[in-house]
Structures are given as C-alpha cells and as structure tokens.
Amino acid sequence: MFRRSEQDKRPQVQIFVDGVAVAARQGDTVSAALLASGVDARRSTAVSGAPRLPYCMMGVCFDCLVTIDGVGNRQGCLVPVAEGMQVEIQKGKREIGK
Amino acid sequence: MTVAPKREAYDVVVIGAGPAGLAAAATAAEAGLSTLLLDENVGPGGQVFRAISSTPVTERNQLGADYWVGADLVQALHASGAEIIHRATVWSLDRNLEIAVSIGGASAFVKAKRVILATGALERPFPIPGWTLPGVMTAGAAQTMLKSSALVPDGRTVIAGQGPLLWLLAAQILRLGGRIDRILDTTKRGNYFAALPHAFAFLTSPYFAKGLSMMREVKAKVQVVSGVTELAASGDGQLASVSYVAGGKRETIPADLLLLHQGVVPNVNLAMAAGIEHRWDDLQLCWSPVLDASGNSSVAGIAIAGDGAGIGGANAAVVRGRIAARAAVEALAPAAAAKLPAMATLRSDLARAERGRVFLDTLFRPARQFRIPSGDTIVCRCEEVTAKDVLDSVAIGATGPNQLKSYRRTGMGPCQGRLCGLTVTELMAQARGKSPQEIGYYRLRAPVKPITLAELAAVPKSEADIKAVVRG
C-alpha cells in the first residue's frame, strides 16, 4: 500500500509484530511502520470483529488500536517505534490484564 | 522518557503545538509569562507542519515553501523560553482553568491563569459506503505518513473529494515518486456559481496562484474526473474497488488505497468539554466556538486560536495565536505588552490571511449526499452504527444526539464522536426537519481521550477527595 522514498536515510529500528521481526525507521510511529512493512496489520473491532486499518493517522479515529509491549488499546499512530518493541495486532477488545 | 510539568501553576498554558499554538506560546513566553505548551504528538508542528523538526524528506521543494515556514515558528518557540512537553494528552480542562494531562501513562495536574486552546482541526467525516474498509484512509493520513516517514502510496491509488489539501497532497505524492491512478473531484457543480461573488477576494489572495499551479502540476500527470455525485468503496475485508458516478455514468475501478478528503472542521472536544459555547456555522457546516475579536471564549480565561476557532488555514492560525497570546499578556502583564506587535497590526495581518476564505468555503462546501449518508452506510465507526439505525431510532423517539446514545451508543466509543458527531447532527436534523443548531451536539465530558482506570486511581488524592467518596 505504501513504500518508502529513497531519500529516507533514517537509521533502522527493529520491532517485532506478533513475534516476527519487522524493520522500521527511527521516527516512524508504530502505525506507519506497520503500514510500510507490508505485514497484515488489520485489527478487528470489539463490536463486530470487522477488520480495520488506521484511518486518520492523527490520533482521532482509534482505528489504529494495537497492543504495544503488553499494553492493549494503544493508539499506534501516536507512539514512536523503539528498538525491540513488541507489537501485537489486537483482535477484538482489549484483554483483561493487558 | 517521561517529563512531567516543572511547576504546578503557569501564567499561560497552550494546548496544541500546531501553527497557532507555536505562535501563541512563543509570544507569551517572550513577554515574560511563565508558559507551558502541551502537545499530543512526538514533535512540534501540528498537522500542517507535521514532523517539521524531523522529516526525512530532505528535498525541500517537494513539501513546498509553505511547509518550511513552520521551522521558523519552532525556532522562535525554542528561543522564547516556553516549557514544551510532547506526547502529552490533555484529557480535562475545566472552568477553574485546571488541566489534567496524561504523560507516559501517568496523569499530572496544572493550573493556569490563562489557557489558549490550539487543538486545531480534523478531517470532516466522509461517510460513504465502505469507508471503514482497510485501505480507505483520509488524505490527511497519507500526508502525515509522507511528511513524518517519507511514505508514498505505491498500489492502485484513488484520491476522492475536494478542497485545497487534496491538490496539495496529490502534488506532494507525485513529487516524491508515489502513485496516483485517478482523482475523483466531488466539488458540486452549483458551487462554482455560488462562489462567484466572492471570487475577487480570492483572485487577489496569495492562494489563487499557488492553487492554480498545483492543480496544473497534478492534472498533467493524473486523470481527474470532475462532477462526481456518488462514491462507494467495496471489498471483502479489504478495499478492492471504488465505484463512482460522474455525468450520470457509473464506473468501477480496482483500487488498493482510497484517500478521502472533504475539508477540515474544528476539533471541538476539549473546548466543548470545558463548557465553551459553540454555534452551528452554516457556511463551514460545523460547530465553531463563540469568540470575541481576541479569541476569548464564553469561559473566562480560555481563548481559542487556530482552526479550532473556525477554519482559517495555517497563516490565519499563526496570527490568531499571536492575538490570543497578546490578549493574555495585556491581562497579566500589561507593561510587557508594549514590546509586542500592536493589536491593530495583528488584526490587519489576520484580515490579509483570511482573504479568499469565503470563496474557498463556498466553492468547497461539501454536497449533502457526502455528508448525510443513508441505508447501511456506517455513521459511527466505533460502535458500527448505520444511517438506517439512526433513522430507526429517530422514528421511535430519539430527539437528538444525546438521546441517541442510549438507543445506539453512537459517539460513546473511543473516538468520542470525532468521526460521527457532525454526521449524526445533520442526519437527525434532516430526519426531524430541524436545523443542526436546534438538534445540537453530543454533551462532551472529561476525559476527552480515554485513559485507564488505573491511571485515574493513581492520581494524587487529598483527604477531602477521599472523604468525598468513602463512607464511614
């Protein structure tokens, strides 16, 4: 869906998406890194289970909700990636304890 | 790294680091007021100057000269001595000018003598069939990724809608080597005629030449279909095609990415939750706060600057930020105000920046069918409520958006009505034969962004707080 422009010279950052290593760039938000990676990052909604991807990328739509380092319902579009970050695609509502 | 505010009280707290907030905070701090700027994003710039301090797009002409103006504002802010905290989500503001802000999962409270809200705008909802499908995004979303991560569309890409941002985005995507297969222009034909009386102001504004050259640049490379009157996205769990009607003829084209845009509207959540009076703006088709000429709202001590005060664009936002800050300085440190540009100068700057706005608002006033959906089209993305669901609720007695909550939970999901509120108001107004002003809006309350109960429970409590809720 998206690709990186060649002029992007930012250093790489490795994150893990459902346990699989994904190359991101320093300064990417989690949502941008997911959309750039080509992995199937579709979450599913708490109401009907419908698949969703980020819609607004500016913190208002909450369609980027994702589990980051064990904490559910994070807005992936507002959180910058960090080396070794563990991202889980959230299926349905936030689980108790996450 | 978590950085809490350094003090418990400030002269001025500015919320939002877009053009208005950057200008307001710099002005207030330069005049010697203790100033705190709180912003939800990773760095300064808001949406229009997003990633201004960190963008990987190094070829400056690709983002355009209007973008790099933001760097000067950031520089002025850093030189001003204002305290700046990013990744800080303000979730409460009340009439006592007490602000609750979530930073790194913990909440802090600060008190202000003056608050300047610069929470800007968000994209107007574009509720077409299939707009919740993965692969359908806002134009602003694509622009955010382009500016902050140099990402460009590379699958089959359709851009649909209208307005200046749409053409700017298309030009930027093309300059960075991205792909656009087709642009579907939904500008209503009749709007050209309606906008004509306002054309002189626009033709003599700086926006005209820029806009025209950008449209030419895009049209030379991309097929543009104008007069689009119907639009729908479809696919099974993922966008597969976009169908549209133009000139009475329906066409369906395969697509991996659909970018929607029909203008921006004030982000009202924090202002409304603070109890600030808003009125329905029938030209811009949104809620705008009731403000005096200095941006002061109906709540004493709270001013609003930038697009949150009514859509005016980045240049106007900067000036409104300076006006609101100057008014704060006049109130709190009158002697220091003498150093700042005179209010009369700022007001004429504002008039210049707003020149041509009525033309744009009239020309790009979105058509009814793209604002007020019908049938199975989703209105509330969070709770997955359709237009038919809303109308069925009206038929059995729901009178307005607040009653509708108990019927359908519209606006009660995490986005708190940001993506459905305007649609619900207009849909119910149409169904009940009332004006949007009469129908009203959701009653918004703190927390205006979801925070966990654990975070709430962890906030410092006084004896009186505990006594208020604990029996015996």
Number of strands of chain B: 22
Structural class of chain B: alpha/beta
| Distance N to C terminus of chain B | 41 Å
Give the terminus-to-terminus CA distance of chain A. 30 Å
The strand order across the widest sheet of chain A is 3-2-8-6-7
Query: How many domain modules of chain A?
Result: 1
Radius of gyration over C-alpha positions of chain A, nearest whole angstrom: 13 Å
Q: How many strands, what sense, and barrel or not for the largest sheet of chain B?
A: 7 strands, mixed
CATH architecture of chain A: Roll
- Rg measurement of chain B, Å: 22 Å
List the secondary-structure elements of chain A in sequence, H or E: EEEHEEEEE
CATH topological fold name of chain A: Ubiquitin-like (UB roll)
The biggest beta sheet of chain A reads: 5 strands, mixed
Mean pLDDT of chain A: 96
Topology, pairings included?
The complex is a heterodimer of chains A (98) and B (472).
Chain A: E1 2-4, E2 12-17, E3 20-25, H1 30-37, E4 43-44, E5 51-52, E6 65-68, E7 71-75, E8 86-88
Chain B: E1 9-15, H1 19-30, E2 35-38, H2 60-63, H3 65-80, E3 83-85, E4 88-93, E5 98-103, E6 106-117, E7 121-123, E8 136-138, H4 139-149, E9 151-153, E10 157-162, H5 164-175, E11 182-185, H6 189-195, H7 199-203, H8 206-219, E12 223-225, E13 228-234, E14 241-246, E15 249-254, E16 257-262, E17 264-266, H9 269-273, E18 278-281, E19 286-289, E20 302-304, H10 314-332, H11 334-337, H12 343-353, H13 357-363, H14 368-371, E21 378-380, E22 385-386, H15 387-395, H16 401-408, H17 421-432, H18 436-439, H19 453-457, H20 463-469
Parallel strand pairs in B: 1-2, 1-6, 2-3, 6-20, 8-16, 10-11, 10-16, 11-12
Antiparallel strand pairs in B: 4-5, 5-6, 7-17, 13-14, 14-15, 18-19, 21-22
Helix pairs in contact in B: 1-3, 1-10, 4-5, 5-8, 6-13, 10-12, 15-17
InterPro entries (chain A): 2Fe-2S-bd_N, 2Fe-2S_ferredoxin-like_sf
Pfam family, one (chain A): Fer2_4
Keywords (chain A): Oxidoreductase
